[in-house]
Write a structure and sequence with these properties.
With 411 residues, this protein is of the alpha/beta class. It folds into 2 domains: 13-186, Rossmann fold; 196-410, CoaB-like (Rossmann fold). The protein has helices at residues 2-6, 26-36, 55-62, 73-78, 81-86, 98-106, 112-119, 132-136, 138-149, 175-186, 221-232, 260-268, 312-317, 337-348, 390-410; strands at residues 13-18, 40-45, 66-67, 90-96, 124-128, 153-154, 158-161, 167-171, 196-201, 206-209, 212-214, 236-241, 253-256, 274-277, 284-286, 306-308, 326-333, 352-357, 371-372, 374-378, 381-384, 388-389. Helix 6 (98-106) packs across helix 9. It starts with a helix and ends with a helix. The structure holds cytidine-5'-triphosphate (CTP).
Length: 411
Amino acid sequence: MTLKSTSALSGKRLLLIIGGGIAAYKCLDLIRRLRERGMAVRVILTRAGEKFVTPLALGSLSGEKVYTDLFSLTDEAAMGHIRLSREADLILVAPATANIMAKMAAGIADNLATTALLATDKPVMIAPSMNSRMWSHRASRRNLDQLRQDGIRVIGPGSGDLACGEVGVGRLAEVDDIVTALENFFVPTGPLTGKHILITAGPTHEAIDPVRYIANISSGKQGYAIARALRDLGARVSLISGPTTLADPDGIETIRVTSARQMLAAQQALPADVAVCVAAVADWRVAAEQGQKIKKQDGSLPTLPLVENPDILAMLSQKNDQRPGLVIGFAAETENISANATAKRARKGCDWIVANDVSSHDGQGVMGSDHNRVSLITAAGIEDWDRAPKDDIAARLARKIAAFFMAREEL
Ligand code: CTP
């Protein structure tokens, strides 16, 4: 069949872990489609999953034994959980219930599925499916955030009618979308395929002496989310990150730096079609970093003269042959947000600026949080976007970038 020879999935091996949700029946169609594309599918069915779909049906479609019980001695002898997880090119959990996600986030291994997930060194994707209130619960958001930080890619969920009779976000992604996400994993394609995008993210640390530095409270979450969203649209992404606690996102070249000057040097080495400067670069560093720890002196305070750091965004925006076709900055403001950000766009010379209110006067601070409220300022004017999870803001910005290139290529 032609699909077999052309699909990015041909010859690849998937370990499909099926959780206990009503959407588990969709895995039957998923397995059929994946096998049509030449992918080998091996299934682990959780006990809860067995309530919705039978090992017999899954076994006939996958053409392989279906694994269900961690403590089956015969299975362990023939195919232990370590081998199960290591012999795949990719692991997909679908439907990923709130319960499985919580266990994965906490590293709990209490059945075959979760043991295989903890034992694996292979990339993992999840397709969540649950009631919309469970999905929006703080605990689920926290777990999702942790899983993303652990490098796990998330497919969906979609919104619409849910099995519980409610309407909202929480439906398992459509089978077509899951197949596309798997294909994209192996051969990234999308509206930004062929584009190289540079992103700066996180804070910078400017050393004062061997044990002290100047920094700010940026977590890097928004920049990392933008990097992932652009990757998911097919772009080749280079992420230049200051010190953060976040893991390197899967499928993204991540360059770790500490100071503003290192961040500048790293971006200069990389020509790009688009640059998105999300980093909260420290504006100043001490004029002379001390080689030894500065000691307290009776009756006198140390004086630390400061010098200004290079402005990476302004340098990237300079008109020359190296300039990326689209340069996007962020404006962290605490007052007169739109006016300050509009002036900043002109001052720095970038094409777009994303303004965000980083004051925490409304109790919904941005830095370090999972949500953001931004305005996009371009030559065409100002668009105010509703407060939303940083991932949604990132996806929206990524779609805008893709639309920018589509419009330009149509000219
Ligand atoms: N930026 C940069 N290099 C710097 C300072 C800022 O690349 N040395 C970039 C940031 O990544 C962001 C934009 O410039 O995209 C604006 O950063 P922001 O901190 O809001 O503005 P500042 O330039 O620091 O100006 P001010 O402190 O006056 O608000």
